[in-house]
Amino acid sequence: MKTYVARRFLALIPVALVVATVAFVLIHLAPGDPASVIAGPDATQEDVRKISRQLGLDAPLPVQLLQWYGRLLQGDLGRSIFLRKPVTEAILDRVEPTLLLTTSAIVIAVLIGVPAGVLAARYHNSATDQALMAAALVGISVPNFLAGLLLVLCFSVWLGWFPVAGYSPLEDGWPATLRSLVLPALALGVVQSALIARIARSSMLDVLREQFIIAGRAKGLGERAVIYKHALKNAMIPTVTIIGISFAVLISGAVVIETVFNIPGLGRLIISAVLRRDYPVIQGVVLCVAGVYMLINLAVDLSYVIFDPRVRYQ
Amino acid sequence: MSVIALPHEATAARATPRWLVLLARRRTTLVGATLMVAVIVIGLGAPWLAGSPTHMDVAARLTPPNRAHWFGTDDVGRDVFSRVVYGARLSILVGAAVVIFSVVVGVLCGLFAGHYHRLDNPIMRVMDGLMAFPAIVLAIALMASLGPSVLNVVTAIGIVYSPRVARVVRGSVLVVRETAYVEAGRALGASDVTLMGRHILPNCLSPVIVQGSFVFAAAVLTEAALSFLGVGVPPYVPSWGNILSEGRLYIQQAPWLVLYPGAAIMLTIFALNLFGDGLRDLLDPKMRGRDAERQRAT
């Protein structure tokens, strides 16, 4: 087990290297000289030279790449051109809303998705099952930003229950924060719950075909005990891993939904950086999100061992 | 060509119509296919079905849906119906172009990685690295460098989805290359190109077709999301994402700016999902259930 974990961590290194290289290439993908692109059309020669020096773009490409790896190893993501502060600081300033949004979305997704999937599997092929799965199919067909807009239309514009947009930071009291997160978290969570419901249902159905379920029924266990005690526990293994993956998916979903609700999180940060061609910030956010994404995926794979003692790794 | 008829060649001619028949037999798949054809017909027939999507009638700005403007007008008096119809055209164009891009790149990478052991590690590590980014975040970052245009949107989304096709192809190649008929082909002196192109690839196509249908849906969604965020196709191009992005600002006065393009996106993705699920159950029955969902999720 220990060697397996160590091996998985080592396997992350080449992937991380590719990720870092992709982030490095981003700035050189733009047609023309990156420094003058960043400086904009009105910039003087002096401005362009200054940016070129600040970003280390005046060195030969291989040297730049090595310097880039070196800086990343020290946790240095460079300085934002527009915000005039270190990128790490800019990211830390914006992490709170994104993290809260993602966490509340995953809670909503699990609370809706798991019971819906279990119910659909228990009454397999019934009207309940078909209705739930039809709803789930509609659910996976709605882009999250559209779900957000529709929720705003319904609950803010027509009913007036929630603010149309905006975010209240935690330091102004958590009730206000919670209120500002209800709609965006619902938009993300409900859409993701459709996926979780489909997985919970299919893994539940797989488990219900197993011998120990037949044995349980044969020894006279009630349907309730069979479903909720024996089947559910085993069906949760794939479901839990998909919840982990959902967390990773929701982080990128949050990037989009923040625009709908004007929430000052990582998503707004990267979009405004794109519009201002603030490359260090773009690279920083991309690296940060990819890093979290990789770690979550690793945690998901490792969780198999914890949740399913039958799984053994050499 | 060898004198021995290899098994897949004998069945290939018969197989195609049969799976079409099977596909048509499922009601949900048929509904999905019909809706998809409808969207394609509407998109391709846009110039005959709708008026100009860019004509501005400032006097008639933000008019609710009526007989002249079925879906109402936007903030500069453009006909929303025309824009939604032309948006279908763009979505189909982007979806199809991304599928072609990612299937060509993905199949080549997957084929080489699976067939040549030496290339496996380098190619697949790069693919893993690209897949380590969440799709939309990588697409946003690529668009930042490439700049807003339809071609760049296709390139960015294509780069994001190629590794997913490559992974599927490589997996199948690893299985197919061990089969007796590939060994027979090699024993008869077939070159690597013949082996890969004639014997291995045709037997790896089912999962590629299934993956392609999901890439199409993902591409339509990603284009809409990118344009909605303002980093996709240029603002003057009628795209569902662009219409929603402008409509968001007028959601209180003119909800039709959100409702109609929103319904168009939902219907299209719904149709693609129905069709894709049917295709998968038929062509790739092992991929049912949670593995398939996991693949969709990432």
Structural description of this entry:
The complex is a heterodimer of chains A (314) and B (298). Chain A has helices at 2-29, 34-39, 45-54, 61-73, 87-122, 127-140, 144-158, 174-208, 211-218, 223-261, 266-276, 279-307. By secondary structure, chain A is mostly helical. Chain A has two domains: 2-73, no CATH class; 94-307, MetI-like fold, CATH 1.10.3720. Chain A is globular, with a radius of gyration of 24 Å. Helices cover 74% and strands 0% of the residues of chain B. Chain B has 13 helices and no strands. Chain B has helices at 7-25, 27-44, 46-49, 80-115, 117-131, 135-146, 150-176, 180-187, 192-200, 205-229, 240-249, 256-283, 289-297. In chain B, α8 (180-187) packs antiparallel against α9 (192-200). Chain B is elongated and about 75 Å long. The model of chain B is unreliable at 9-13 (pLDDT under 50). The chains are: A mainly alpha (314), B mainly alpha (298).
Low-confidence stretches of chain B: 9-13
- SS summary, helix count of chain A: 12
- Structural class label of chain A: mainly alpha
* 3D shape of chain B: elongated
| Overall mean pLDDT of chain A | 83
Overall residue-averaged pLDDT value of chain B: 83
Q: Indicate the multimeric state.
A: heterodimer
Tell me the domain tally of chain A: 2
Return the structural class of chain B: mainly alpha
Number of strands of chain B: 0
CATH topology of the largest domain in chain A: MetI-like fold
Helix content of chain B: over 70%
| N/C terminus separation of chain B | 42 Å
Please state the overall shape of chain A, judged from the principal axes of the Cα atoms.
globular
Distance between the termini of chain A: 7 Å
Strand % of chain B is under 5%
